[in-house]
Design brief:
The structure holds two protein chains of two kinds.
Chain A (H helix, E strand, L loop, with lengths): L2 H22 L6 H20 L7 H23 L1 H4 L1 H4 L8 H27 L11 H25 L3 H15 L12 H10 L1 H15 L5 H24 L1 H10 L1
Helix pairs in contact in A: 1-6, 2-3, 2-6, 3-6, 3-7, 3-8, 3-10, 7-11, 7-12, 9-10
Chain B lengths: L6 E13 L9 E13 L3 E5 L6 H8 L7 E6 L5 E5 L10 H11 L4 H15 L14 H14 L4 E5 L7 H16 L3 E6 L2 H7 L2 E6 L2 E7 H23 L1
Helix pairs in contact in B: 2-3, 2-4, 3-4, 4-5, 6-7
The chains are: A mainly alpha, B alpha/beta.
């Protein structure tokens, strides 16, 4: 399949899914903005009203972390099931298997554009300004995207091999949500060595922290660290593409028979 | 004349098996095809006949390159596209009939523009009316089969692999579909037609392969093979009845 056809298909599949999804709900496309707004409302009730957090702009801190994380977790979880969910098509066309997770990733990327727009609105409404430092968002978003794609490909292959990976992947996302400094600041840990350790060991924590550093603290992220994460996941991505190409028919068999 | 025709798809000693969780098979291994060899020539209509579950669909999936054989080799003529047309599977239920048709055509290699150019004909031939723009999950099984068949008919590929596609739908549409299919088959189109309905195969195919328990039981002239198959089925049915009695 030529490249242009491949990307056109991803785009068409994503748009169709979005349209079908919107038509299922009474509020349609409004959900794109409503869902993240509801998240923030829940945070407000829990952390500000009930727990009485005194930290300035804690709500914004939570929203930035959580909404960036949701992009990763939702994409990877849904993309992991995509080949198995698309087995009707898998059994009918010898299509590249990466097409299925890519369509899901594209779909959540379109949704995430609305979420990021909302986040920027929050930031501006709280008096934060868009500065030159925000340019660092470009490589950050790119690395985040590569991370999503490579993890999705791994997940999609694993679920093909055994459906048991579906609950495990959801559990892994829950684990990451609690360990990546979404509800707590990785920089507030008493031991600076621990902060360093979390940021080094967990790339998701680094990415989330980088979003906050750039938008809330006007500080560029450790670019070398960012690039090494990008290179690592980029290598994983290349390996997965090769693997999924060579094992295309094996994956189809597994998706159809397991 | 047949000798001069190009071989479009060739199966050489192809065996296919897969691991199943159910241990009722050979230690969980399900043997679908066993040492099957055949050639599909350009422009011919090859019928594959056999009871449900003898490996007919798997054979088409091997020919389309969707699955790889466990043993043996599947050779597809370089640069030729084979497309599998089947009912039931393949629809995304949340998408409209239109979107499903567009997606199917694009997955078979059409550009978006070309795929869109098919849509008018598909809407008309399938007689779906406004339902063409409704989600497929609201369709009756007859409507689904009409959409599937029409989408299949309108897309143009080198080798058509047809899986039980003419066996559903109401009498009016079935007649119309069969005529359309015949027109397509009598042209230059290379077709593999799978069915468990002997009459249809006899009517449409030049050559027939009878598949039984993963092996080729008989192959050759469509009348001879389908007659032998029908006799075999009738005998098996009678034997079953006398056992019950």
């Amino acid at each position: 399949m030529p490249f242009s056809q491949y990307f056109r298909l991803i785009d068409v599949m994503a748009r169709m899914a979005l349209r079908a999804d919107a038509s299922r709900f009474f509020l349609g496309y409004i959900w794109w903005v409503l869902e993240p707004l509801l998240w923030v409302a829940v945070f407000y009730v829990v952390f500000v009203v009930i727990l009485g957090s005194q930290q300035p702009d804690f709500l914004l801190f939570l929203a930035t972390g959580k909404l960036a994380f949701v992009w990763f977790s939702k994409s990877v979880t849904q993309a992991s099931n995509s080949i198995v969910a698309g087995r009707g098509l898998v059994g009918r066309v010898n299509a590249p298997k990466t097409l299925f997770p890519m369509a899901v990733i594209q779909e959540s990327m379109y949704r995430q554009i609305a979420v990021f727009a909302l986040m920027i609105t929050f930031l501006l409404s709280r008096g934060y300004e868009i500065t030159v430092t925000w340019l660092y968002l470009v490589p950050l978003l790119l690395v985040n995207y590569v991370m999503i794609v490579s993890c999705s490909f791994v997940g999609a292959c694993l679920v093909c091999l055994a459906r048991d990976f579906t609950p495990l992947i959801s559990l892994a996302m829950l684990f990451l949500m609690f360990t990546s400094g979404i509800f707590w600041d990785v920089r507030d840990l008493a031991d600076p060595y621990k902060t360093e350790l979390v940021l080094t060991v967990n790339p998701v924590a680094f990415i989330i922290d980088a979003y906050r550093q750039i938008t809330m603290h006007n500080t560029p992220p450790d670019i070398l660290h960012l690039l090494s994460i990008g290179a690592g996941f980029g290598a994983l991505l290349c390996a997965m593409v090769l693997l999924m190409r060579r094992g295309s028919q094996y994956l189809a068999l597994k998706a159809l028979t397991a | 004349m047949r000798e001069t025709r190009r071989v479009m798809i060739e199966l050489v000693n192809v065996s296919h098996s897969y691991q199943s969780k159910r241990k009722s098979f050979d230690r969980g291994t399900h043997h679908v095809l066993n040492q099957v060899s055949l050639q599909l020539l350009e422009g011919e209509t090859l019928g594959i006949i056999g009871r449900n579950g003898v490996g007919k669909t798997t054979m088409l999936q091997l020919m389309a390159g969707i699955l790889a054989p466990t043993l043996g080799e599947v050779r597809i003529h370089p640069g030729k596209s084979a497309s599998l047309l089947t009912l039931g599977l393949g629809f995304k239920p949340d998408l409209s009939g239109r979107d499903n048709a567009l997606l199917a055509a694009m997955l078979q290699g059409s550009t978006r523009k070309r795929a869109e150019s098919f849509l008018g004909d598909i809407a008309e031939f399938s007689e779906l009316g406004d339902s063409f723009y409704e989600p497929v999950k609201n369709y009756s099984s007859g409507m689904r089969s009409r959409l599937a068949f029409t989408t299949a008919l309108m897309t143009h590929v080198d080798v058509l692999l047809i899986d039980e596609i003419l066996s559903v739908g109401d009498a009016h549409f079935r007649g119309k579909a069969q005529t359309a299919m015949k027109n397509r088959i009598t042209g230059e189109q290379t077709v593999v037609f799978v069915s468990h309905m002997a009459d249809q195969v006899k009517d449409l195919c030049d050559r027939v392969i009878w598949l039984d328990q993963g092996k080729i039981a008989m192959q050759g002239d469509s009348v001879e093979v389908t007659d032998a198959y029908t006799q075999h089925i009738t005998k098996a049915r009678k034997a079953g009845r006398s056992q019950q009695a």
